[in-house]
Amino acid sequence: MSWLTDVEDDEYDEYDESAIRVRPNPKGNKPRTKIRPEHNDSVTGRVISVDRGRYGVIVDEGTPKEHRAISTRARELGRKAIVTGDFVDLVGDTSGDDGSLSRVVRVQPRSSLLRRSADDTDAVERIIVANADQMLIVVAAANPEPRPRLVDRYLVAAFDAGITPILVLTKTDLADPSKFLANFAGLELRVIRSSTDEFPIAELKEMLDGHTTVAVGHSGVGKSTLVNALVPDANRAIGRVNDVTGRGRHTSSSTISYRVGSGWIVDTPGVRSFGLGHVNPDNILRSFGDLAKIAEGCPRGCTHLPDAPDCAIVEAADRGDLGEIGKLRLDSLQRLLATLA
After folding, report:
1. 35 domain-assigned
2. Residue 290: phi, psi to the nearest 5?
3. Model-level pTM greater than 0.70?
């Protein structure tokens, strides 16, 4: 009987957890944990440039200690985008000395996001800049010819992001921009005019002071020339317009922020298309406050386009309740909504 007991004990010893040998960890790695450090010692900075995984960040902004630090992304951020204009929290060496490198551990909540998609059918968005409150839409009166529909797209993106659009007309000495500007007569759109070689720098600097302003525009319209006039040491590359195609050559290849007074101007690469697949049409209507109030009487799902049945805005226009300016604003709204449709 004792022999059987010994056999049974031997069998159970074979599966005894205490008898299992634990392989030593030669590297001394700590076990992985989901607990992340709080980084209470982090400092806050503004991202002013992004280049191949390195971020130029202004630290101690607005103080005598203001300086530029170079940072990389912390692993815990995962795939969260870090873009020009972001306010981020940094740890590590934020001194900005040669060879120093800090890490971005947090992206602070954004007040606005200017986005575009590859085309109108693509809902995947690309963030251009964060926390901007103004948009300079730079358009040439000629060479290259102005494109009202592209400006419509910029306006849609600005209204969707809650950013105030401002139209800057360059090269007005080459052509009269009146016909082009008539497309936007119904909008409360501030317009700045300039000639080929001269910008109203004082007016522009006053307008940009205290704001974060993103500059957008078709290649060759003079956007980088404008930035260089505002910030002489920016040295943004300037291209010329092709005499055969009438198109500008892409020169700016990155999005960079420059100080203008107490504000910032963000220069972006020139684009020939601006996809709006991510935009919510309701955001466009909200930018037309007077018409949005009338639209409260529209049926659900109303497109507010001329053929929309029982549209309260269209009916108000037909009755003459909107007035001349109201009709112009409705025309602008419908054109922008048709851009999305």
Report:
1. no
2. -65, -40
3. yes
